[in-house]
Amino acid sequence: MSRTEFVIATAIILFVAFCLGWFANWLIHRFTRVAAGDVAELDRMSQELHEAEETRDQAITYLQQREAELTNQLSQTEAELRAAMDGLRDARHETEEMRGYIERVNQG
Q1: 9 found inside a domain
Q2: pTM (2 decimals)?
Q3: How confident is the model over 81-91, as pLDDT tens digits?
Q4: H or E, element range at 63
């Protein structure tokens, strides 16, 4: 093979490699490019996701506040119940003392 034939063969091989690379690049961009409508839809979806996250955060905050209020109310109600039960116990004790006193007075 002469020098000229070698240069021509190398040029052809390089040209074919260039064409294959360009074709592969074109295919990749053809299949991976995103249409403008898709970009707009992705923007809309990201905005809706952001709004949903904000709504979720607000709901979580509201639920935490409501839980704290209900826990406080439950504690107050339990304290009132204990006080009422103590008062009822004292009243029963006083009633038993009065009955005993009345029975002693009636017997005496």
Answers
A1: yes
A2: 0.52
A3: 999 999 999 99
A4: helix 36-107
